[in-house]
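User: tokens in, sequence out, please.
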């Protein structure tokens, strides 16, 4: 019997497998996280630098003669737009864990790993960090932030203090492990598998203008920020003493916020939620419009809400389209019509013109004067359209690291400039 076992091991060794009394072994890649204290990590995550190339373009924000473009989870780029024909990138505000901003009275309010960061831009050539309110938006117990998982056979997390530790990288080494141990990762009953999936569950205006994909919204002296389930409310009347008010729970998978008068329209993966802010410190639920699971920004003009639903991939199962909802009776929103779309993202309204970013299908321009019936005026193809901001005299659009500006011409628009970030 020992001779038979020896022969098996010789054969296995020729295939880079070794044997012991407890079975065959192989070389496997084992990944262990490299940790940094969260406090020092956050201190290093903020800086103002010279312009840098964009990594992953996100949302846009307009304030006076400046445009701010989010670099997903990295910070945002500052664009001087005094001359819209020749916009110029002038700075990069490094703010790790950032996805959104809103601006009032030369103060930027931005998110960073669940914290609210306030930045002073009164001197655009000397941007300074004013303050940071820790865990103001959500509790930052996410210790695995946006770092790609390495290719590995085992992930060993060790003794991590979830309240203090941040993963800043991975150490991957080859180690001898038993084949039985490797295979048992997928055959255990009731145990937690060390895999990526198991952790993935875990005149110069005083206020600027964001796009339809915004999670931040300033109304008078209040800042409203939606996280994945709540409306976070801040009294910003005194910027030196920002008050964190009680959250209002909405639903799961909240994505965007838009306002018309004293009404908030909250876009979520399951539907659109309508809240009144007659008392700005305590938004009150009015009604909801439910739809299939999809990514869901909302803009509203008069009696109609325009909702783009993007299905497929991580967005959900709903069919992509533009939904036009009658909100003349806020307590009973009613779907009027659906226009098929390829893969819509953000949208915006200027007068009787509706702009829809339809992903790789480009920017689509509609006449909505006969809403809920709309008619296509123009399509700008061969671009990837992500989000738009209709300004008084021009339209801003972002897509795949490029900032586009269009000027209004009668009932249409024409390209004014592009800036590769």
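Assistant: Sequence out:
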């Amino acid at each position: 019997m020992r001779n038979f076992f020896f022969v098996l091991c010789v054969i296995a060794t020729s295939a880079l497998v070794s044997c012991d009394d407890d079975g065959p072994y192989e070389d496997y890649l084992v990944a262990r996280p490299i940790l940094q204290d969260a406090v020092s990590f956050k201190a290093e995550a903020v800086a103002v630098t010279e312009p840098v190339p964009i990594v992953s373009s996100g949302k846009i924000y307009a304030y006076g003669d400046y445009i701010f473009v989010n670099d997903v989870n990295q910070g945002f780029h500052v664009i001087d737009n005094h001359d819209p024909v020749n916009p110029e990138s002038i700075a990069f505000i490094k703010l790790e864990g950032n996805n959104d901003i809103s601006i009032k009275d030369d103060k930027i309010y931005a998110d960073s790993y669940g914290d609210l960061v306030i930045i002073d831009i009164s001197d655009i050539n000397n941007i300074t960090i004013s303050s940071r309110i820790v865990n103001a938006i959500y509790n930052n117990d996410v210790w695995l932030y946006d770092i790609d998982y390495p290719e590995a056979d085992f992930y060993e997390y060790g003794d991590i203090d979830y309240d203090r530790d941040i993963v800043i990288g991975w150490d991957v080494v080859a180690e001898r492990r038993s084949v039985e141990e490797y295979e048992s990762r997928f055959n255990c009953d009731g145990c937690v598998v060390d895999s990526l999936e198991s952790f993935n569950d875990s005149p110069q205006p005083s206020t600027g203008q964001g796009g339809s994909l915004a999670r931040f919204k300033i109304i008078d002296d209040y800042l409203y920020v939606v996280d994945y389930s709540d409306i976070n409310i801040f009294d910003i009347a005194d910027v030196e003493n920002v008050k964190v008010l009680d959250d209002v729970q909405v639903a799961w998978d909240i994505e965007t916020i838009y306002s018309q008068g004293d009404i908030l329209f909250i876009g979520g993966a399951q539907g659109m939620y309508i809240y009144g802010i007659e008392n700005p410190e305590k938004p009150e639920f009015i009604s909801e419009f439910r739809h299939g699971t999809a990514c869901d920004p909302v803009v509203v003009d008069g009696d109609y809400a325009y909702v783009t639903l993007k299905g497929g991939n991580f967005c959900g199962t709903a069919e992509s389209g533009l939904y036009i909802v009658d909100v003349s009776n806020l307590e009973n929103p009613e779907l009027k019509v659906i226009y098929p779309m390829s893969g819509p993202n953000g949208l915006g309204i200027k007068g009787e013109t509706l702009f829809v970013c339809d992903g790789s299908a480009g920017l689509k321009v509609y006449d909505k004067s006969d809403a809920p019936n709309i008619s296509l005026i123009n399509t700008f193809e061969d671009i990837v359209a992500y989000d738009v901001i209709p300004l008084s005299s021009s339209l801003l659009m972002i897509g795949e690291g490029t900032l586009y500006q269009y000027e209004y011409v009668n009932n249409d628009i024409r390209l004014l400039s592009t800036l590769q970030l």
